[in-house]
């Protein structure tokens, strides 16, 4: 805009500036561009010294460019998943731009581009005079100078980090500072631009500068560079632009936001405030500029008369193709994309501050190659979406699944039933939360994981030297639970109950694991400490959500007996990693989603650091896997999730009350975790029906299909190592003698020692009625948890005394004295006088407890 109300002093100062600075421009440019011309005179020398004090070197940085996320496609090659940008730009090579685009931009902006050395002297001198007069603000810049201007704008904008509270004002000022062409400041800016342009021409070829200009130039809004402009405005590429399209884009670049053609209601206003350059007026302002470009192309001989006529006649008809950016564009992969985005925005590998990391994501043109494998991801998406609707009952019923690689921690799949959307909405079918991840990686608080948490009791059981074949009392009982540091709490297992109201039984951790017996695992935990169990979870990479503090905390921060059954809110990804640790011989590999990062120059950059570590011994891991394989075997609680493709699997089921369910399974090559249940609230899902299945059983089908896909892609899995002999030993304990005790006392004694008791039918014994007469097995060393049968006396028996060696008469008298009413000598006692016969045995034998009416036969020697 022309300057108004200039003072005489201002005009005088401007004229003096014009004299000196024009001398600089004329002398230096002439000397640089046409060195054969002689340069002489004191005034020229002084002007040259003044010009020499200006900065002389400008190194164009890589322009802002979108960063891109890639997944692994079905052919193993990268597939673009999402882009992020401040400026939508796709850089192209010289031969990827249509020649008519070069003709259009040069005819309209710099006809003599290939003839000058970076500066057009005649146009520059005229612009300087007009600027001093205040009658024009035109810059008369060559393509080289415009390239310099855009580079300077980019460099200025790069210094304004995203998140700056004055971001919009500062970036706008970058443009104003670089394009100011009025008065003395405008002259100085123009001279600096000229000096840089001359240097640029020495460092780069004409074609490189022209292409650099087209790659960096603004085309309105967030559209930058000729390829993005062609894509956006005409749904084509820079290589396929028509004459009319090329002329339109060449016209837009002269005043991008005024001439843009994506504002159907108008991109500018007239002096009366009416919208102009709209769809209704045929984008009149842009058409005038476009037609000017076409006329210049014709005048320069770049197009024929027929081409000129056709192009002039053509209306401006945009074919807009808005660029998609952000994770919503990743569609089925959006939740994995969001996970990666949180890594980029939080990890120091992408910058020391939040602002720098946003810059890396939106401006640095990074190629981020992720671990997402579409061969595993796509079946996972189908497995969930076919079974869990985006909004089942408007009570936050949802589902999520994740698959990871145990040996590396690479996340291979993340799926969720909802549709990704960052705009808040009341429709529960949409969410931006990543259910599979923790709060730091998608805003979810996790879910109660139920009996899948029993893994950590099993690990602690083994680490303290217990055996999976050690028999313990898993019946309902009141236990004294060791919490931490000697503190105890009582727990009545019947208040929690078992599946199908099972009263529990005496058994081993092997069976408890297969059956997921709650009372059995509480019995195991009563011999351990809750804080130690939670410490195992912490060691295996598990964190939990504290709803009161509204933050992620360690699993050891809160320790209660019910932790054994998984009441903590935990991310499915954390649980998948824990089971993957068992499958990986006790080595924990933190989850990671980024394989490679490449910058605009094609250079490899550091990725976020992760390190695998041995957190449980191989022996404990192998024995835990041995127990967990029973879950996936026929008759195990997780057998419904087994794809039965021959892959060895470990696994565990889980549920919490009546609103949350989980299924986790793993081979040595892939671990999958699935959560199905309420994502908010605790509304019952049990025995609710959808698409031919109970809601509580959906987890099995989803996990099965996810694991089957991973098995197919990764080649199944290896056999798990054999369990440790010591940790699978049969444990012998002392069995006390309870003969002679009452049945009640004997039962209490045996159960207190960890044995199961079976009371048999009363037997003949000389003991009083109700007193234990026999036990089987007898006192001594037996396997822990052995079932002992005790038989009470019926009070009707007697014990055959030992009468061997006695004379027959004495023996008979002794037997009758013992209560036996039927005593008969054997034939061996018949010959001779009874007093001469000696007894050597009886039938029943001495020591036999039997009824008093039993016939006793006496044998003689």
Automatic annotation (TrEMBL):
Q: Where is the composition biased (Polar residues)?
A: 781-797
Q: Which organism is it from?
A: Microbacterium murale
Instruction: Write out the biased-composition intervals (Low complexity).
Output: 841-853
Outline the segment boundaries, as ranges, of region: Disordered.
776-801, 825-853
Which PROSITE patterns does the protein's record reference? PASTA (PS51178)
Q: Name one GO molecular function term.
A: carboxypeptidase activity
**Signal sequence annotation:** none
Q: Any idea what this protein is called?
A: Carboxypeptidase
- Alphabetical UniProt keywords: Carboxypeptidase, Glycosyltransferase, Hydrolase, Multifunctional enzyme, Protease, Transferase
> Which residues does the UniProt record annotate as the domain PASTA?
728-792, 794-861
Catalysed reaction, written as an equation:
Preferential cleavage: (Ac)2-L-Lys-D-Ala-|-D-Ala. Also transpeptidation of peptidyl-alanyl moieties that are N-acyl substituents of D-alanine; [GlcNAc-(1->4)-Mur2Ac(oyl-L-Ala-gamma-D-Glu-L-Lys-D-Ala-D-Ala)](n)-di-trans,octa-cis-undecaprenyl diphosphate + beta-D-GlcNAc-(1->4)-Mur2Ac(oyl-L-Ala-gamma-D-Glu-L-Lys-D-Ala-D-Ala)-di-trans,octa-cis-undecaprenyl diphosphate = [GlcNAc-(1->4)-Mur2Ac(oyl-L-Ala-gamma-D-Glu-L-Lys-D-Ala-D-Ala)](n+1)-di-trans,octa-cis-undecaprenyl diphosphate + di-trans,octa-cis-undecaprenyl diphosphate + H(+)
Under InterPro entries, the record lists:
Beta-lactam/transpept-like, Glyco_trans_51, Glycosyltr_51/Transpeptidase, Lysozyme-like_dom_sf, PASTA_dom, PBP_transglycosylase, PCN-bd_Tpept
In terms of Gene3D superfamilies, this protein maps to: 3.30.10.20, Biosynthetic peptidoglycan transglycosylase-like, DD-peptidase/beta-lactamase superfamily
């Amino acid at each position: 805009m022309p300057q108004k109300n200039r003072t005489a002093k201002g005009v005088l100062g401007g004229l003096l500036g014009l004299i000196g600075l024009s001398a600089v421009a004329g002398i230096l440019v002439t000397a640089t561009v046409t060195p054969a011309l002689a340069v002489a005179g004191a005034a020229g020398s002084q002007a040259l010294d003044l010009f020499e004090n200006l900065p002389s070197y400008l190194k164009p940085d890589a322009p802002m460019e979108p960063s891109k996320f890639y997944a692994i496609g079905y052919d193993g090659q990268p597939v673009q998943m999402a882009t992020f940008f401040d400026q939508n730009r796709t850089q192209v090579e010289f031969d990827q731009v249509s020649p008519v685009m070069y003709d259009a931009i040069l005819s309209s902006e710099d006809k003599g581009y290939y003839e000058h050395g970076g500066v057009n002297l005649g146009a520059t001198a005229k612009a300087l005079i007009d600027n001093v007069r205040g009658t024009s603000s035109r810059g008369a810049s060559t393509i080289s100078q415009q390239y310099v201007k855009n580079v300077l704008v980019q460099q200025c904008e790069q210094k304004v980090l995203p998140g700056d509270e004055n971001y919009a004002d500062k970036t706008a000022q970058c443009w104003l500072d670089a394009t100011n062409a009025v008065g003395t400041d405008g002259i100085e800016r123009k001279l600096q631009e000229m000096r840089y342009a001359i240097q640029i021409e020495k460092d780069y070829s004409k074609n490189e500068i022209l292409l650099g200009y087209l790659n960096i130039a603004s085309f309105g809004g967030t559209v930058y560079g000729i390829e993005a402009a062609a894509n956006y405005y005409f749904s084509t590429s820079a290589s396929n632009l028509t004459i009319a399209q090329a002329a339109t884009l060449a016209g837009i670049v002269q005043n991008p936001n005024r001439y843009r053609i994506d504002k159907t209601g108008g991109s500018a206003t007239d002096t009366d405030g009416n919208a102009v350059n709209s769809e209704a007026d045929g984008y009149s302002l842009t058409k005038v500029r476009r037609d000017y470009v076409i006329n210049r192309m014709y005048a320069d001989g770049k197009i024929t008369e027929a081409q000129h006529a056709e192009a002039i006649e053509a209306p401006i008809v945009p074919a807009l193709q808005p660029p998609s950016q952000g994770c919503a564009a990743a569609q089925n992969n959006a939740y994995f994309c969001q996970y990666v985005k949180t890594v980029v925005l939080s990890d120091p590998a992408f910058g020391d501050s939040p602002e720098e990391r946003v810059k890396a994501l939106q401006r640095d043109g990074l190629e981020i190659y992720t671990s997402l494998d579409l061969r595993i991801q796509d079946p996972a998406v189908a497995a969930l979406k076919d079974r869990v609707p985006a909004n089942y009952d408007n009570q936050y019923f949802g589902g999520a699944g994740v698959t990871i690689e145990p040996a590396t921690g690479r996340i291979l799949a993340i799926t969720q039933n909802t549709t990704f959307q960052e705009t808040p909405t009341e429709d529960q079918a949409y969410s931006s939360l990543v259910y599979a991840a923790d709060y730091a990686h998608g805003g979810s608080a996790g879910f109660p994981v139920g009996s899948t948490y029993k893994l950590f009791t099993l690990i602690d059981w083994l680490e303290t030297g217990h055996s999976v074949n050690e028999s313990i009392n898993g019946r309902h009982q009141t236990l004294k639970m060791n919490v931490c540091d000697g503190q105890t709490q009582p727990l009545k297992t019947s208040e929690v109950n078992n599946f199908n109201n099972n009263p529990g039984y005496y058994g081993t951790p092997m069976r408890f694991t297969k059956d997921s017996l709650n009372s059995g695992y509480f019995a195991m935990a009563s011999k351990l400490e809750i804080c130690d169990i939670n410490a195992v979870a912490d060691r295996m990479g598990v964190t939990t959500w504290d709803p009161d503090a509204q933050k992620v905390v360690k699993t050891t921060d809160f320790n209660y007996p019910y932790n054994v059954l998984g009441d903590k809110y935990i991310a499915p990804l954390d649980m998948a990693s824990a089971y993957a640790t068992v499958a990986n011989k006790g080595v924990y590999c933190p989850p990671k989603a980024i394989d490679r990062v490449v910058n605009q120059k094609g250079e490899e950059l550091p990725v976020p650091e992760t390190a695998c570590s041995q957190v449980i011994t191989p022996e404990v891991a192998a024995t835990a896997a041995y127990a967990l394989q029973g879950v996936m075997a026929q008759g195990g609680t997780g057998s419904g999730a087994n794809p039965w493709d021959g892959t060895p699997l470990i696994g565990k089921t889980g549920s919490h009350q009546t609103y949350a369910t989980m299924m986790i399974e793993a081979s040595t090559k892939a671990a999958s975790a699935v959560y199905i249940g309420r994502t908010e609230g605790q509304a019952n899902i049990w025995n609710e029906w959808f698409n031919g299945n109970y809601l509580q059983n959906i987890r099995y089908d989803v996990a099965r299909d996810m694991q089957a896909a991973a098995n197919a892609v990764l080649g199944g899995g290896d056999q798990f190592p054999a369990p440790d002999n010591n940790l699978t030993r049969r444990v012998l304990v002392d069995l006390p003698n309870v003969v002679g005790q009452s049945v009640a006392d004997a039962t209490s004694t045996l159960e207190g020692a960890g044995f199961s008791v079976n009371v048999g039918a009363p037997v003949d014994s000389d003991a009083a009625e109700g007193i234990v007469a026999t036990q089987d097995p007898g006192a001594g060393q037996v396997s822990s948890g052995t079932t002992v049968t005790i038989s009470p006396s019926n009070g009707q028996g007697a014990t055959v005394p030992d009468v061997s060696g006695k004379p027959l008469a004495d023996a008979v008298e002794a037997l009758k004295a013992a209560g036996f009413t039927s005593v008969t000598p054997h034939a061996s006692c018949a010959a001779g006088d009874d007093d001469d016969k000696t007894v050597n045995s009886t039938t029943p034998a001495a020591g036999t407890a039997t009824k008093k009416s039993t016939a006793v036969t006496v044998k003689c020697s």
